[in-house]
Design a protein that fits this description.
Number of strands: 11
Number of helices: 14
Keywords: Flavoprotein, FMN, Monooxygenase, Oxidoreductase
Strand order of the largest sheet: 1-2-3-4-5-6-8-9
CATH class of one domain: Alpha Beta
Organism: Lolliginicoccus lacisalsi
Distance between the termini: 9 Å
CATH topology of one domain: TIM Barrel
Strand content: 15-25%
Protein name: Nitronate monooxygenase
Helix content: 25-40%
Largest sheet: 8 strands, parallel, barrel
InterPro entries: Aldolase_TIM, NMO
CATH architecture of one domain: Alpha-Beta Barrel
GO molecular function: nitronate monooxygenase activity
Length: 311
């Protein structure tokens, strides 16, 4: 068995967390990650409602039992109703990322819930440590969706060398080999996202799965054009990694203003709409059920570590 801080604390089989992907990770995907032996996380984006969290949490719990919720800290600073809704749903894990989690960690702990935070730099790590989180996630630039600018492997090494907290990794992890590498380095587990986006349990635009399955790992772009197109007020600290299309080719680095970009955006058009995905896109070759993906990654990592590391 792969035993780490994460598996011990949550009572799960595999040290795998389904990334809290806004607009893609609903209750069904979340629950299936947990049912397969990891822990899934609902993606509570800024535009999510408390009612959505309550409904999708019920679905996740009915399928897999244990689950988590991922929140964007900078959005909570304006309205923390989503945190109230998340805690009311009784998750085992809450992720407070992209900003200072200090105002919210005490409330999470008072509810008897573990708090983690994704970090993209050592400075982020210090903020998370001071906030009192239980673990951190070293999220590298390979990750799909919003992320930082340092690659996963350099960042993971730097974070592991710099903290006594349990450290998970995110960004580019899509096979048992990726999970084994994280664990062999001393990590407590991994977040997986892109590899789940080809699964039938995801939510989102109908064209997204096809776009992902046809994408190579060289077909992503790290950009803020889709935030501008949808008037999403993300800090320039965090751009989003998405599959390239004609819209991003036209506007990325063009200097066009937000109003001009937004006027051209068509969410339902695959040549214009956004499909956030990471550099592991080339490893997603077919649409497979979430449970098959998660159990495969976990069992393959276990075999590899046993064979090569004696773990």
């Amino acid at each position: 068995m792969l035993t780490t801080w994460l598996t011990r604390e949550l009572g799960i089989t595999y040290p795998i967390v389904g990334a809290p992907m806004g607009g893609r990770a609903g209750g069904k995907l979340t629950g299936e990650v947990s049912r397969a032996g990891g822990i899934g996380m609902l993606g509570a984006a800024r535009y999510t409602t408390p009612e959505w969290i309550a409904a999708e949490a019920t679905v996740a719990r009915d399928i897999g039992g244990v689950f988590g919720v991922g929140l964007m800290t900078w959005a909570l600073d304006d309205d923390d109703a989503l945190l109230d809704a998340a805690l009311a749903a009784r998750p085992a894990l809450v992720s407070l990322s992209f900003g200072d989690p200090a105002p919210y960690v005490p409330r999470v702990h008072e509810a008897g819930v573990l708090a983690i935070a994704q970090v993209n730099t050592i400075e982020d790590l210090r903020v998370a440590e001071n906030a009192g989180v239980d673990a951190v996630v070293a999220q590298g630039a390979e990750a799909g969706g919003h992320t930082g600018r340092i690659a996963t492997l350099p960042l993971l090494q730097e974070v592991l060398e710099s903290t006594t907290l349990p450290v998970l990794a995110a960004g580019g992890i899509a096979t048992g080999r990726g999970l084994a590498a994280v664990l062999a380095a001393g990590g407590a587990g991994a977040l997986i996202g892109t590899v789940l986006l080809g699964s039938p349990e995801t939510i989102g635009p109908a064209y997204a799965v096809d776009r992902l399955l046809r994408a190579a790992s060289t077909d992503t772009v790290y950009t803020d054009v889709f935030d501008k197109a949808r008037h999403q007020p993300w800090s320039p600290r965090w751009f989003g990694r998405a599959i390239r299309n004609s819209f991003s080719d036209q506007f990325h680095g063009s200097g066009a203003g937000e109003d001009q970009i937004a006027a051209e955006y068509e969410a339902d058009d695959p040549d214009h709409g956004v499909v956030y995905a990471g550099q592991a896109a080339g490893l997603v070759k077919a649409s497979r059920p979430v449970a098959e993906v998660v159990s495969g990654i976990g069992s393959d990592a276990e075999k590899l570590l046993s064979r090569f590391c004696g773990m």
